[in-house]
Design brief:
The protein is mainly β and 303 residues long. The chain has three helices and 20 strands.
């Protein structure tokens, strides 16, 4: 176009994305890796949800259990409403997958706002990037939960592990993938009760960071150590005011205790006292045969 006074305007390009259902197997695997490991996956902003990973054993008996609340309501509202795949993965230091469990679910068939995943798998000692990826099988829309976990070598030294916080939740529905390593005879939600001491029909994992005065706080505190270390193990708890550095002792009750093959856990209950609204850190101290170990459990805003 050479006529004086005329201007040529064209579009820079066009977007005609390939339907996820038409992806090849390799394309779907690349899509999964991008969702699991990239901070900003290509082509979409996935839903995000909290994920907790607990060690289920140490040394040659090592394993992981990935626990998450899956955002069923958001998936129903924002996705196509068809089947979704739920994948639990753990990547080692070389980004090789050492854990992979999968099932196909239909969030549209439940009225729950959240349903819970417990994915079990054997895993050798090491540090793992753990992911739960949910993908709409029609559109490729996704939700992702991420955390890091470690499976320890068998060791004679006592060491506390990150805790699992719980909340009362009667009738919580669980999706179970895999089976507990170590030859447990129990399956389904009953395996959670056996290994982690809480009744999954009454409690579910919690990611709450705001608590009211008088709120009950339940937590599962795991540890590694020598056989028999649970005998005589005692816990104490206190709140640290992050503004004033004042410490407030808390009453603490042991609701259950278990130990097997160098891995143990206690189910503890405490209550938030009448304190000033502020930012606090919950501190747990365990005292056993060989000394003591403190655990910084979680920071809360108390209202």
């Amino acid at each position: 176009m050479t006529r004086p006074g005329c201007e040529v305007r064209t579009q820079a390009g066009y977007l005609n994305p390939k339907l996820f259902a038409d992806y090849t197997k390799i394309e779907k695997e690349l899509h999964l890796v991008d969702l699991a490991l990239a901070e900003k996956p290509a082509g979409q902003v996935p839903l995000r949800f909290p994920l907790t990973a607990l060690a289920t054993g140490a040394g040659q008996d090592g394993g992981l259990c990935l626990l998450a609340g899956l955002p069923a309501r958001e998936m129903r509202e924002k996705w196509a409403g068809g089947p979704v795949e739920v994948l639990a993965l753990a990547y080692d230091r070389n980004d090789e997958i050492v854990v992979l469990t999968r099932s196909v679910e239909r969030p549209a068939s439940t009225k729950d706002d959240v349903f819970y995943l417990a994915a079990w798998a054997a895993a050798p000692p090491g540090v793992y990037r753990c992911r739960v990826v949910i993908r709409d099988l029609e559109t490729g829309a996704a939700a992702v939960g991420a955390t890091t976990a470690a499976v320890s070598e068998s060791s004679p030294e006592f060491r506390l592990l990150p805790p699992l916080f719980l909340r009362a939740n009667r009738g919580a529905r669980y999706l179970i993938q895999g089976a507990p390593p170590g030859g447990s005879k129990k399956t389904g939600p009953a395996a959670l009760s056996e290994r982690f001491l809480f009744d999954p029909s009454q409690y579910s994992p919690s990611s709450e960071t705001k608590l009211g005065k008088g709120t009950e706080v339940w937590m599962l505190v795991p540890w590694t150590g020598p056989e028999g270390f649970a005998e005589g193990l005692e816990f104490t708890a206190r709140l640290l005011d992050l503004l004033t550095n004042d410490e407030i002792p808390l009453s603490l009750a042991v609701a259950g205790k278990t130990e097997s093959r160098g891995l143990g856990a206690c189910l503890l209950r405490t209550e938030i006292p009448e304190v000033e609204a502020d930012e606090y850190r919950l501190l747990i101290t365990a005292v056993g045969k060989d000394g003591r170990m403190s655990l910084i459990a979680r920071d809360f805003h108390i209202e």
